[in-house]
Specification:
The chain is α/β, with parallel strands linked by helices and 465 residues long. The chain is 47% helix and 8% strand.
């Protein structure tokens, strides 16, 4: 029997995540507010002393208040002795009234929502649909290998203002050239962009495996074997520092899958086979990355460890039940979400024991909406795994996969097999009413919440410098 959704726990999780997501802004604003309050209080103190300096002679001295001088020598007929005052009759306390408490809106939340509304309100439907996609620079431009951001990149970003670009080792000539390309790409876009990479460390490290001046970390399995989550924090602090310097703002890491003997795919990439241990490492990794101004992405929900295949080569199926996964596979993802992960990546994992069919989780309403959104209470960005993998392309056309993912509840679509076909299919779906513009706006609000937070943090950092 499925566990009933615990509403109170979900509310607590959502509140906790929201607080973590704007912690950097709040800290910065608190510093500014404290400084302003200090200045105002200091000014008030000085003014108050000056205005009340003349009252010093009227203050209580030795417990007695001096009387003002009287020229009548006590014979003033206007002075009448006080009449004795009868004590007031005791009265019963007022009956308590149920007055609703109106909470003041959070200033940071108000500002954030204003920024989100400002961006979305100026977007055409075409821009909104493009903003749901993260693609490679080659998919965007049609160029075989992109290592610079030039006129073609500018032209295509004007035509398709995508939500983000993902880079691989072939895009990196040198550290400096890569940094310049990222900077120019961000400047070329009329909307803030996610600039993404897979930098897990160890066996999957696009930058560290290409640039000699950047050190690679150990495999995550080696770090997990130490039993010290602080080692994961140190590794991802280092990874986040050079990614942030380059201009990357999203890292599709850490891997949150639990390693099993069924699938050797994650022997090096996963932290280990103990769900509780993996949870601690994932949590510390997410916090470390996001403290470096890099959005983390826990992957591959609901868990690839017990699948019988690799979605990069074909269908990957697990026979695990929902209850079994709740006690094992879910734990690291929940830990990552509670740590504030801005993204969750849903894998192309078929779960017939849960859904009754072979539809991958990345296209499944059961997994994305019913479990990830409603049961686990995740409110941030849900992104599919790469839609150009055979687990998708062997069974779905690019446009069909994109529409199914959106209908299932995904916010962002990663690397469709044919970007233009998928983009046009979503536009047609809106025209036909199978996907509503309101549904797209819901995803855009999640997307731009993260983008606007990143923008606020960046601007505050520039002011501080």
């Amino acid at each position: 029997m499925e566990r009933k959704h615990d509403t109170e726990q979900s509310k607590e999780r959502r509140a906790y995540r929201r607080k973590r997501r704007i912690r950097n802004q709040i800290i910065s604003y608190i510093v500014l507010v404290v400084l302003i309050i200090g200045c105002v209080a200091g000014g008030y103190y000085v003014a108050n002393n000056v205005l009340h300096k003349s009252d010093k002679d009227n203050t209580v001295v030795n417990g007695e208040t001096p009387t003002p001088p009287n020229d009548s020598d006590g014979d003033d007929p206007t002075l009448v002795p006080d009449e004795p005052v009868e004590p007031d009759e005791p009265t019963e306390p007022d009956e308590p009234t149920d007055v609703p408490v109106v909470e003041e809106p959070d200033p940071q939340e108000v500002l954030l929502n204003e920024m989100i509304d400002s961006y979305i309100s100026q977007m055409s439907l075409q821009d909104k649909v493009a903003a749901l996609f993260i693609v490679t620079p080659e998919q965007l431009t049609g160029v075989n290998k992109v290592t610079v951001a030039g006129k073609t990149t500018q032209s295509k970003l004007n035509e398709y203002p995508v939500g983000g670009l993902i880079y691989f080792s072939k895009n990196i000539v040198s550290y400096t050239d890569f940094k310049t390309m990222l900077e120019k790409t961000q400047e070329m876009s009329k909307y803030p962009m996610f600039l993404c990479i897979d930098e897990e460390g160890g066996s999957v490290a696009r930058v560290a495996s290409t640039v000699s001046t950047v050190n690679d970390t150990d495999h995550m399995s080696v770090i997990g074997a130490t039993g010290e989550p602080a080692n994961a924090a140190a590794a991802y602090t280092y990874i986040g520092s050079y990614l942030s310097d380059l201009g990357i703002n999203v890292n599709f890491a850490p891997v949150s899958d639990v390693k099993t003997s069924i699938n050797t795919l994650f022997d090096k990439r996963a932290f280990g086979s103990d769900p509780s241990l993996v949870s601690n490492f994932v949590s510390m990794s997410v916090i470390a990355l996001q403290e470096q101004k890099i959005s983390a992405c826990v992957k591959h929900f609901p868990g690839h460890g017990a699948t019988d295949g690799d979605s990069e080569t074909g269908m990957a199926t697990t026979q695990r039940t929902l209850e079994e996964m709740r006690t094992a596979e879910f734990l690291p993802f929940v830990a990552g979400m509670d740590a504030g992960s801005d993204f969750v990546m849903v894998g192309h994992i078929s779960t017939p024991a849960v859904t009754g069919d072979q539809v991958p989780a990345s296209l499944s309403k059961t997994w994305i909406t019913d479990v990830l959104r409603n049961e686990l209470g995740y409110e941030e960005i849900i992104i599919t795994d790469a839609l150009n993998m055979p687990a998708i392309t062997d069974y779905y056309l690019p446009g069909d996969a994109a529409i199914l993912a959106l209908q299932a509840g995904a916010d962002m679509l990663l690397m469709p097999e044919n970007f233009v076909d998928a983009y046009n299919a979503v536009l047609n779906a809106v025209a036909q009413g199978t996907v509503t513009e309101q549904r797209i706006d819901e995803s855009l609000r999640r997307i731009y919440r993260v983008k606007c937070q990143q923008k606020m943090i960046t601007e505050l950092g520039e002011i501080a410098e």
